Amino acid sequence: MQLRLRLLINKNDVNMINIKKLKYPFSCLKTNKSEWLPGAVFFTLLFLVSTVMNFSLTYMGNTSEKAVSMVLQHYLFVIIFQILKVLFLYVIIGSLLSIVFSRAFKEIQKRSSFIKKHESFYIVLFTVIALFLFTFLLFSEKLIQNPQSYVENFSAHSIIFKHYQYLLTDNFSPMLFKIIRYIILIAFAVFFTASFNFKKILLYISEALRWLKSLSFRYKAILLTAFALFFVFKFSYYFIYNNTDTGKPNILILSSDALRPDHFSCNGYERNTTPNLDRFVKESFQVRGMFTVLPRTFPSWVSILTSKYPLSHGIKHMFPRTRERIVKFESAVSYLNNEGYRTSVISDFAGDIFPRIDLGFDKVSAPDMNTLVLIRQIILEKQTFLLPFISNKFGLGFFPEMKDMAKLTFPEYLTEETIAEIESSGKDPFFIVTFYSITHFPFSPPYPYYKKYTDPDYQGGFKYFKDRVVNLNQDRTVSAEVRDEDKKQVVALYDGCVSKFDREAGKVIEFLRDSKKLDNTIVLILSDHGENLYDCDFGMGHGEHLKGNDALEIPFIVHHPALDNLKGQTVRLTSSSIDVMPTLFDIAQFSKPDYFTGKSMLNRINSSESCVSDNFDAVNAYSETGMWFDNDKSSPLFFHHQRIDYPDISGVSGIDFNYNDEVVTYQEYQNIVNAAKYRAIFSGQYKLIYIPLKDRVKFELYNFKEDPDNCNDLSKSRKDVLDKMKILFYDFIDKESAGNFIFSKDYIFPAFNDPVY
Questions:
Q1: Tens-digit pLDDT profile for residues 646-701
Q2: Which CATH architecture has domain 250-348+409-554+579-743?
Q3: CA distance 209 to 603
Q4: Among 59, 529, 536, 724, which is most buried by a count of CB atoms within 10 Å?
Q5: 480/462 Cα distance (integer angstroms)
């Protein structure tokens, strides 16, 4: 190599150069103000325009004076620091681009008759034009790729901006603008690199090689030995750690929030949403009829991983107090840790519950969710012209709070991280939970998935995502009425999200297959809960009521050679999400820990128990609602008018300033939130729903197998069944809560003013 370098350099020059005298071989990188200043000024102006255009502390369309006052009082320094951090990045990006464009124009000028008079003025002018053009192309590309991120803070400001966004997203691919941008960037990069003094750099490299050659034999031997050991270690690590069968199966849970199995094309759905899962289910085993214990993410995942009901583990809604989260949880994760498993959870915004509770994972790769993160996120979302530059891995690294943005998701990054985690597991068996947020509200899939099933002529408010205004003001309500075309649009957006999840899950499954790990890995397709999508009179969302199966049923598709006798089968079996880990342990041939409450579904399938039994002598599944997020009395939806009322989320919760600034439920609302819950049990073919009201307790009874939408209440016509189900219900509550409820006039009241641990 040194010989080749010397051929490029005059021999006399080499002899004259001494490495110690080469103080600055890269002097060609020195810049002056005329090169970086135009970009710094231009991008500072972009910062000012974004800030002025979107100056507010609103969240999801709301401004609460009380909330703003609290934020300014406690988090003013956080706001100032985040604004300065944003401005700093604006200036750095602008300066770097400006140097490239300015240096390129100077090189063009040197090589042609281009610009003779007022050289500096024209170079600055052309640099600014190039900066504008590059920013415009990148902005347009991202406007098509992730239009959801720019609706509130760009297109909502002007009818011109709105129709410009419609023009782009309806007619163009982001690839068009990307290609044009790359062509321009490459052209400028060629002229920019031409300005380098390569001769001097090559001299420096030559002298460095000469210095290495002059080292004594001992130092050369040390360096060679170090390099040899490094490569030997890398090779042996790969060969030994990745080719050792420990005898224990790997476990991989691929899940997505609010995933409905009835929207899988393999289950008869009208749209071809899941081609990858369609192929996968043919070599797997599927259970239909598994119900979540609580259709909200936090308590649902705690129940899945501990195999316990919220009645016993104590996480009953999305905002548990600190004392309820810092207790020691016995979970499947901690059991697998003791068995030598490498345990990890990987997620984006819907998985921000995992850093808030210790369930035993060795690695938690998920965003934090607290007031600090929320403030930083609000400020960042409003920087319309910075988002295109940071909607990538660099941006996620510089602004970790971006991972918690609901309108800007990167499911492909979770896929890459999952594959990397599998590869780095080495000889240790792994237990990985990958939890995608793509199918969670507000249903904002990237291009082309937001167009895949939607009506191209739709021009309503839900064109790119399901917008929703959370009411933070106690003196007004928000109408829940939605037009039929809006409902169809929301369902189409959701199906696009399902299709995107299917693509990412398919990538991971194919990697396992190609790497020969699939046969030694239990792969499970799962979710935390379902979703109401304007079915019947159920509204949209989850956790507000228990009618129907849409928000309660979750997918369960499992693959492993031990299940070859069930390959390709779909079994209807009423079961609970607390049965997930006992079933996986049964497949892996692990003994079930004593603290598991759930049961293996394999035992039920292999026993004489009928999956469609009329018997109702045992509880097959239990569900309860979460906290009421809002109370809209103008809504025609039934559940807003059939409940024990308390203030909405902004009234019952506050910030724990002593513990990570997290949002928690106030102590004085603990009991009413718990007492006001709907509760339901599934037994045989019947479903009993307990609905506490101000003046009485209402019971509804349904044959949920014949009537999955719960349209025909049997509580009056089948009084005999109702009475038996009520006895079963109260016995179940008393047993599972360890006597922590008092029963009075059919009401279920918490037995303590404060939970005892």
A1: 988 878 888 888 888 888 999 889 999 999 999 999 999 999 999 999 999 999 99
A2: 3-Layer(aba) Sandwich (3.40)
A3: 69
A4: 529
A5: 14
